[in-house]
C-alpha cells in the first residue's frame, strides 16, 4: 500500500495520521479528516487503503518497527541478561516519550478490540526478541522458570503501558524515562527467579 505512494504523499500522510488519530476519538476520525490535514485527495487515500483502519495500521507497523530496530541494535552490545531487560524497558519508555502521539494512539485513543483485529498487533519480531531474552534467562535460572515467557512479556509490556498512561494523566511532570531504573527494579522483583532474590529485612527506626 505505502510502496505505491510517492515519498512526498507518504510523508504528508504520516504526519496527518499521527496528528488526527492522536488527538481525535478513533470512531469520529475519518479518511476525509486525514485527507484535509495531509492535503491529499480522499480518492487517493481510499484507493490505496480502503479504510481508516488499514491506513492507520500501515503506519503503526512502520512506527513500531523503528522501536524494534532500536531494541535489536541495543541488545547486540549487552551480555548481562538483567541489563538486557533493563535496556528493553528503558527503550520503550524513551521511545514513547519521544513519540508521545504514538503512545496516545496505542494506549488511549485506539480501541484495543480494533488493534487486536489487525496483524500489526502481534508485533512478531519485537515479541520474539524479548521472548528470547526471557527464555535464555529461564535456562540460566535467572528468570522465574515457573512462568510462561509470554506471561512475563505481558507483565513487562503491561507495566510500560500503565506508566505511559499515568504519565499523561499526571500532566507529564517529569521525563517518562527519569525513573526507569527504579521502576525496572520493581519489574525485576516480579520476573526474577524467586530462588535467587535476596530479601533484606528493612531497617526499623526505634
Would you report the number of β strands?
Answer: 0
User: How is the biggest beta sheet arranged?
Assistant: none
Q: Please, what is the oligomeric state?
A: single chain
**Count of individual helical segments:** 10
| Unreliable stretches covering 5 or more consecutive residues | none
- CATH fold-level assignment: Tetracycline Repressor, domain 2
The proportion of strand residues reads: under 5%
Helix content, binned percent:
55-70%
Question: What's the CATH H-level homologous superfamily?
Answer: Tetracycline Repressor, domain 2
Detailed description of the structure:
By secondary structure, the chain is an all-alpha fold. The chain has one domain (2-193): Orthogonal Bundle (Tetracycline Repressor, domain 2). 67% of the residues lie in helices and 0% in strands. The protein is built from ten helices and no strands. The chain has helices at residues 7-23, 31-38, 42-49, 52-75, 81-98, 100-109, 112-116, 124-139, 149-169, 180-191. Helix 5 (81-98) packs across helix 10. The longest helix is centred in the first third of the chain and has 24 residues, at 52-75. The N and C termini lie far apart (69 Å). The mean pLDDT is 90.
Write out key terms for the chains shown.
single chain; 206 residues; mainly alpha; Tetracycline Repressor, domain 2
In short:
This protein has ten helices and no strands. The protein has helices spanning 7-23, 31-38, 42-49, 52-75, 81-98, 100-109, 112-116, 124-139, 149-169, 180-191.
Amino acid at each position: 500500500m505505502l510502496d505505491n505512494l510517492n515519498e512526498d504523499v507518504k510523508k504528508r500522510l504520516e504526519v496527518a495520521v499521527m496528528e488526527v488519530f492522536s488527538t481525535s476519538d478513533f470512531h469520529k476520525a475519518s479518511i476525509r479528516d486525514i485527507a484535509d490535514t495531509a492535503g491529499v485527495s480522499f480518492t487517493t487515500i481510499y484507493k490505496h487503503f480502503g479504510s481508516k483502519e488499514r491506513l492507520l495500521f500501515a503506519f503503526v507497523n512502520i512506527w513500531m518497527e523503528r522501536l524494534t530496530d532500536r531494541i535489536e541494535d541495543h541488545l547486540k552490545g549487552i551480555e548481562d541478561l538483567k541489563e538486557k531487560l533493563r535496556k528493553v524497558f528503558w527503550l520503550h519508555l524513551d521511545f514513547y516519550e519521544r513519540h508521545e502521539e504514538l503512545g496516545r494512539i496505542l494506549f488511549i485513543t485506539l480501541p484495543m478490540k480494533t488493534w487486536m483485529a489487525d496483524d500489526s498487533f502481534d508485533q512478531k519480531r519485537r515479541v520474539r526478541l524479548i521472548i528470547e531474552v526471557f527464555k535464555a534467562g529461564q535456562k540460566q535460572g535467572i528468570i522465574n522458570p515457573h512462568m510462561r515467557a509470554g506471561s512475563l512479556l505481558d507483565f513487562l509490556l503491561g507495566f510500560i503501558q500503565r506508566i505511559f498512561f499515568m504519565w499523561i494523566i499526571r500532566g507529564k511532570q517529569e521525563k517518562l524515562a527519569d525513573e526507569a531504573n527504579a521502576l525496572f527494579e520493581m519489574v525485576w522483583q516480579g520476573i526474577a527467579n524467586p530462588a535467587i532474590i535476596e530479601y533484606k529485612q528493612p531497617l526499623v527506626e526505634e
